[in-house]
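Fill in residues.
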């Protein structure tokens, strides 16, 4: 996939993504959520631990992904990206920026799986 300065970035996570500079100090841009893509989740009960239900969780096909489109890339969760290994237009957040309490504020980069 050829990335250019004109590449459109579509955020398919449930929250806005704030992109910081390399130092993690200045906000470069905020990419609002415009929908949600997910991987189908399956839960199979396997028992209980101290009365708490326990399941075996697995993921299937990606849901909510638009068809590939020239000049457009999509930010999705890591699980969703893994569910669509044939897509070269899916990205995840990378190099996370956190506050002093460990809460995620944003990222400094995007990555492919």
């Amino acid at each position: 996939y050829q990335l250019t300065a004109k590449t459109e970035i579509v955020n398919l996570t449930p929250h806005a993504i704030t992109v910081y500079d390399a130092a993690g100090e200045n906000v470069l841009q905020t990419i609002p959520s415009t929908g949600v893509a997910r991987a189908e989740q399956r839960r199979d009960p396997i028992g209980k631990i101290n009365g708490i239900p326990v399941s075996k969780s697995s993921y299937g096909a990606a849901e909510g992904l638009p068809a590939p489109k020239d000049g457009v890339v999509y930010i999705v969760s890591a699980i969703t990206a893994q569910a669509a290994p044939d897509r070269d237009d899916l990205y995840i957040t990378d190099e996370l920026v956190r506050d002093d309490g460990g809460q995620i504020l944003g990222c400094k980069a995007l990555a492919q799986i």
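The radius of gyration is 17 Å.
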